[in-house]
Amino acid sequence: MIRAHRFRGFAIAAVALLAAGATARAQDFHGFDPGAFSGAMLSADQLKAMVADAKAATPPRNGSGYVIGFANLQRDISFGVKVEGGIKANADAAGVELAVADNRLDGPTALANAESFVRRNADFVIEFQTDVNFGPAVMNQFDTAGIKVAAIDIPMPNATFFGANNPRSGFMGGSYLAQAAVAEYGADKVGQGYLVVGELPQSGAIPAMRTGGQVAGFQAELPNFPADHILKIDTKNTLQESFQQMSNLIGRIPAGVPIMVTAINDQAATGMLRATQQAGREADTIVVGMGADETETLAKEPRFVASVGYFPERYGNYLIPIALATLANKPLPPAVLVNHVMVTKANICEFYPDAACAKDAKVLDYKFPQEAFAKHLAALRGLEELKGYETLIPKE
Q: Does the N terminus or the C terminus of the chain have fewer Cβ atoms within 10 A?
């Protein structure tokens, strides 16, 4: 099986500024420039200097020290655990108090947590919440209280956006899956197979650019792939729901044909893989995940061949400086996007030293289809549902 592509000499990519539409370039703030930041955690001295400048501009509401709220997506999933750990490490180094809540993938819970942060008189809040319909209500709480916000992955009105480059990460994952499937099964057999995409409708148009990009990237490599062989499920952002929905679906896929799986995140992709395993269809399955945060699954599951890296453990290196820069009245761009790479069995140890690279992994000579991606971006810019979100669509 084609299982990996090694990116030799590649350093972990930093989060990059999406400058389109920004009226002013952010300035360096004690080593933090979102347009040229390495992504490595700043020193405690640098973070404390940020706090001092922020206090001079915006004194803490409690009269002594800053309280930064963090409403996590869900505290018991791998991605959320890694994001929270990075935020806590930065808050501790900066000497600010971190108040953590669990949104539990639920809009009403996110709203209740927002109300709690307002009562707590938080100085700044980092929101990671999945229900786009509750975004305005959550932000109304903060706007009324005069609390600034950074929103992870799901945009919210008046909040600084931080998170995935959804069009590019999706296109990378889908095109990689197509190339890996052809290398594994041959083009003729792949043409008889099925692409199954695990979506997340509740999160709205922005994350939909990720799963839409997965389909577009796959089709860029296989333009004649039958449209009726592209199946979609609602994952609800969980392994359990993905497993159930994939189990319900798999009976529609003829025996012996390739089942090509990708999803909104690694947890959903893993649930879908577990369903094919339970149904006795593992040998037919090839999976490309999204997030590269389920490192054990990627390293050990033979059919889980790659995942698009998001590096959630590094999010805090950006989010605490973003919070402190905001409190210091420093200019920031409206959106800061992750620069993604493919993480595979062959190169996983380059990004996560605790994971072993597979020395016998075959190499997929993956090529990103840039010309097709440019056409995809042009199509996105014309979509009515993305009006107002132009800063979240990359230039190239």
A: C
Residue with tokens 């955690």: 41
Which positions ≥6 away from 330 have C-beta within 8 Å?
26, 27, 29
Place of tokens 């649930």: 271
The answer to whether 331 and 33 have CB atoms below 8 angstroms apart is no
3-state SS of 238-283 is CHHHHHHHHHHHHHHCCCCCCEEEEECCHHHHHHHHHHHHHCCCHH
Name, in order, each residue with C-beta under 8 angstroms of 18's C-beta and a sequence gap of 6 or more: 165, 333, 335, 336, 337, 391, 392, 394, 395
Domain ranges, ordered by start, for the chain: 26-164+313-332, 166-309+341-392
DSSP SS3 for 13? coil
In terms of C-beta density within 10 A (0-12 exposed, 13-18 middle, 19 or more buried), how is residue 250 classed? Answer: buried
Look at residue 159 and give its three-state secondary structure: coil
CATH number (3.30.1370.10, 2.60.40.420, 3.30.420.40, 3.40.50.2300) of 166-309+341-392 reads 3.40.50.2300
Cα 127–131–137 angle (5° rounding)? 70
10 vs 106: CA distance, rounded Å:
38
The confidence score (pLDDT) of residue 36 equals 77
Distance of alpha carbon 128 from alpha carbon 102, whole angstroms: 9
Residue type present at position 91: A
Q: What is the pLDDT of residues 264-303, one digit of tens each?
A: 999 999 999 999 999 999 999 999 999 999 999 999 999 9
Question: Residue 337 has what pLDDT?
Answer: 85
The secondary structure element, H or E, covering residue 222 is: none
Common-topology check for domains 26-164+313-332 and 166-309+341-392:
yes
Q: What is the CATH number of domain 26-164+313-332?
A: 3.40.50.2300
Q: Tell how strand 67-72 and strand 124-127 pair up.
A: parallel
pLDDT above 70 coverage of the chain, percent? 93
User: Can you say whether residue 12 is alpha, beta or left, with left for phi > 0 and alpha for psi between -120 and 50 degrees?
Assistant: beta
Strand partners, 71: 101, 127
Tokens of 336: 């800061």
Query: How far is CA 34 from its chain centroid?
Result: 17
